[in-house]
Specification:
five-stranded mixed beta sheet; single chain; 36% helix
Length: 477
């Protein structure tokens, strides 16, 4: 089954839209917000006392994003090293604990992304308006100040509520062009410097960031097609700032004795062994003395076989969850295996329910005060809620990819395609997964009489594709 993020950049055709609407109905996806929720979302926030509107923050997001969770400012410190100021939308300033808006957020848990629309966690007037860190607007925020040494290791971390005002809304391509051309102003140019140093530390501690290509819909000549898009380096550097903050949040909560961590146990030996066999089949050299993390860094997501292997690497991330602890009783597992350190989700409260609670605990820890009762009351149920929300989001992503692929291939049943076998079932080697050379489709293959050649190219025939009724399926030609 495909495990790719899909981003639509063209208007879907009618059959595709109908299939996506049917999927939302099937999954019980929430529709419009109740009137009392909308009424609460329109109220003025509780303003913080600290004014940090003098900090020239900027956001870095996809160009069409309006639900802006994070804004940053990066600077050099006089005595050496760096200062990262990272403002996170303060959703709690708008939400009354136990009120209609809070209850609706617990029902939705996460924002859901479909190719034709977004189903938000909070009403758009809040998530894309009053709480979003839009440029030129004064907003309440949870403001992190992280001081780093010359190697970008964290020396100190502080977090407080503050009023902030972003100066600019930047997108990844704009940032990348400015940095590559040497024309970016220092606060933006430092994203490369700090991001690169943090990536080195990630390798040093054994962490991994998977540079998995996105599968996106692209428009041309009045039609739509699928293509792969490898992430820009600026996207990785931006992610490192979020990871840095999540790691600081985890350390604060662990020191305070109460918190909610994002945890992932180490992958079992069998999973790593299977990944080594996949690398061999895809002709990827993985010497035994080379660590998994270093191998990942050496791969080029533009190459089809490397992209296929990176996609298979996501299997090692299964099993991630949320772990709650309190009263100083630390859990057995406190680390996230991919981060290779304790880590917490706290930087996307407009889109993830749990981040609002993590931020509140961090604020209490930094001020050395008790965690609010409304947080403690909800804490024990939070892991289950987040797990259910994450499962629904993963199902949406998986089913949307299948529907879009079927919609774009529906008139080509019987056609031949060039493909690469990227996965073969252990219990039935005649069934597996192929990645087409063009268009950018990953789908099931079955119906052959002999073992599929893992890592090999072969011609395949499309046997089924109909959005809403039949997923794209292939057979050896």
């Amino acid at each position: 089954m495909p495990r790719r993020h899909m981003r639509a950049v063209c208007a879907p055709e009618a059959p595709l839209r109908a299939a996506l609407c049917a999927l939302r109905t099937e999954l019980g996806v929430p529709e419009s917000f109740p009137p009392d929720v909308l009424e609460e979302a329109g109220r003025s926030p509780r303003p913080p006392s600290h004014d940090a509107t003098d900090i020239p923050l900027f956001t870095v997001d996809p160009p069409t994003s309006t639900d802006l969770d994070q804004a940053m400012h990066l600077a050099r410190r006089e005595k050496g090293g760096y200062r990262v100021r990272y403002a996170i939308a303060d959703v709690a300033a708008f939400v009354t604990p136990g009120g209609p808006l809070d209850a609706e957020a617990h029902r939705r848990v996460t924002t859901l992304y479909f190719p034709d629309e977004t189903v938000p966690l909070h009403p758009p007037r809040l998530s894309e308006g009053a709480a979003s860190l839009l440029p030129g607007r004064i907003r309440p925020a949870v403001l992190w100040t992280l001081d780093l040494d010359a190697e970008s290791r964290t020396e100190s971390a502080d977090v407080r509520r503050a009023l902030v005002r972003s100066r600019a809304k930047l997108d990844y391509a704009h940032v990348q062009r400015g940095i590559d051309a040497g024309t970016a102003e220092e606060p933006v140019a430092l994203l490369e410097g700090i991001g690169t140093l943090r990536e080195r530390l990630e390798v040093e501690r054994g962490g991994i960031s998977l540079n998995v290509p996105e599968q996106e819909i692209v428009e041309g000549d009045g039609t739509c097609a699928l293509a792969y898009r490898a992430p820009l380096p600026a996207e990785g550097w931006n992610a490192q700032i979020s990871l840095l903050t999540g790691m600081a949040a985890a350390e604060l909560m662990l020191a305070h004795g109460t918190g909610v961590l994002r945890t992932l146990p180490a992958a079992p030996d069998g999973a790593v062994g299977r990944l080594r066999r996949t690398a061999k089949a895809l002709r990827i050299d993985w010497p035994h003395h080379v660590s998994y993390a270093r191998l990942i860094r050496s791969l080029d997501p533009h190459l089809p076989q490397h992209a296929a292997f990176l996609q298979e690497c996501t299997t090692l991330l299964r099993g991630a969850g949320y772990t709650v602890f309190r009263d100083g009783l630390l859990p057995e597992v406190t680390s996230h295996a991919a981060v290779a350190a304790p880590y917490a989700h706290c930087t996307a409260p407009l889109r993830r329910l749990g981040d609002r609670y993590a931020a509140e605990i961090c604020l209490a820890a930094a001020a050395d005060r008790e965690v609010p009762d409304w947080v403690l009351t909800a804490l024990d149920a939070l892991p289950k809620e987040m797990a259910e929300g994450s499962r629904r989001a993963a199902t949406v992503e998986r089913e949307c990819v299948d529907i879009v692929e079927a919609a774009l291939l529906k008139d080509r049943v019987g056609d031949l395609f060039e493909a690469c076998v990227v996965d073969v079932q252990d219990h039935d080697p005649t069934v597996g997964t192929v990645q087409l050379v063009s268009p950018a489709v990953v789908a099931r293959i079955e119906g052959g009489r002999s073992r599929l050649p893992l890592g090999e190219h072969l011609r395949v025939r499309l046997t089924a594709a109909n959005p809403g009724t039949a997923k794209a399926r292939f057979a050896p030609a």
